């Protein structure tokens, strides 16, 4: 009998790719959705409403694994006090809802795998390479990721193997963080941001989905894992590489820091700061990245 994987946030960019991979590997997939959707072969939809703390419990009860991707997009809107609360609540309350059903029915899973982010290490610039045993940063990004991960610890207390995937910038074809950048660079309007020296820990969508699959099949995986290529890509290197793929050298000056701060407010930290992260722990599981070369990864994502 096929194993079932329940995905929260399964209708988004990562969820769609992950669903296709899991089905191709012989799993059935259940997706939690706020709207009614038609089931497909090996893909089943269940309704939930986190704000109302409602969920079709059958989705959890039939699951062998849960992959928790749900949460407000951290880079979608300015970080007002209300927005910050929504970002944290969307992650905490969705995890609490899943925990409630698991505990109520004494449901045992083979694993609970949750998204997190390299923002755990904070909005910083510098040469230091961040590893999984580092403390969370004392800023909003670090706080939000810590609260996100803390909400999963309740599930670990149910004696369920839990894995936390601290994800870098995810690139994919016509999606991910490239979605807004590619049109600018395609029409030769791209440039570096701020100093351009900020690191950009990136990962190709195929590798990210591969890490989630690794977390399913490797029973020894537990705790946090960085999901990003450990290289020296800065915003300037990234921008020059993407422009080169479209056949030109950047001619525009860097976008000034003050303009980004004026436009984005506190959220500008996402693009003006960065960090290097270690990939040693995930590679020690035997996982091998398909894309470690930035140019090759970008070419794969922007090819027609």
Question: How would you concisely characterize the structure shown here?
Answer:
This protein has eleven helices and 13 strands.
Describe the structure.
The protein has helices at residues 13-24, 58-61, 81-104, 140-156, 178-186, 205-217, 235-245, 257-264, 269-272, 280-283, 294-302; strands spanning 4-8, 28-33, 43-49, 54-55, 65-68, 111-117, 129-130, 162-167, 169-172, 175-176, 202-204, 223-227, 276-277. It is α/β, with parallel strands linked by helices. The protein has a domain at 4-168 and 202-227: NAD(P)-binding Rossmann-like Domain (Rossmann fold, 3-Layer(aba) Sandwich), CATH 3.40.50.720. The strands form three sheets. Strands 4-3-2-1-5-6-8-12 form an eight-stranded mixed beta sheet, with helices on both faces. The protein has a three-stranded mixed beta sheet with strand order 10-9-11. The longest helix has 24 residues, at 81-104. The chain is globular. The N and C termini lie far apart (39 Å).
Highlighted features:
globular, three-stranded mixed beta sheet, single chain, 13 strands, Rossmann fold, 304 residues
């Amino acid at each position: 009998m096929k194993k079932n994987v329940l995905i929260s946030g399964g209708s988004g960019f990562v969820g769609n790719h992950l669903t296709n991979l899991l089905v191709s590997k012989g799993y059935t997939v259940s997706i939690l959705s706020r709207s009614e959707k038609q089931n497909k072969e090996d893909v089943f939809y269940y309704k939930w409403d986190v704000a109302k703390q409602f969920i079709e419990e059958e989705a959890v009860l039939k699951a062998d694994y849960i992959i928790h991707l749900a949460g407000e997009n951290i880079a979608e809107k300015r970080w007002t006090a209300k927005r910050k609360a929504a970002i944290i609540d969307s992650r905490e309350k969705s995890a609490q809802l899943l925990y409630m059903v698991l505990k109520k029915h004494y449901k045992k899973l083979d694993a609970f795998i949750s998204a997190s982010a390299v923002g755990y290490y904070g909005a910083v610039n510098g040469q230091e390479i961040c590893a999984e045993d580092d403390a969370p940063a004392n800023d909003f990004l670090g706080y939000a990721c810590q609260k996100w991960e803390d909400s999963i610890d309740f599930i670990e207390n149910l004696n369920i193997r839990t894995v936390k995937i601290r994800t870098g910038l995810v690139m994919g074809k016509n999606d991910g963080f490239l979605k807004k950048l590619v049109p600018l660079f395609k029409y030769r309007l791209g440039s570096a941001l701020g100093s351009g020296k900020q690191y950009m820990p990136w990962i190709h969508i195929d590798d990210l989905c591969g890490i989630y699959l690794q977390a399913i099949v490797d029973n020894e995986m537990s705790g946090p894992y960085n999901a990003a290529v450990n290289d020296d890509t800065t915003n300037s290197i990234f921008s020059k590489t993407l422009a080169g793929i479209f056949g030109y050298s950047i001619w525009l000056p860097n976008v000034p820091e003050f303009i980004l701060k004026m436009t984005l407010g506190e959220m500008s930290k996402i693009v003006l700061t960065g960090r290097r992260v270690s990939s040693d722990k995930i590679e020690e599981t035997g996982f091998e990245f398909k894309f470690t070369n930035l140019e090759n990864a970008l070419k794969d994502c922007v090819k027609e």
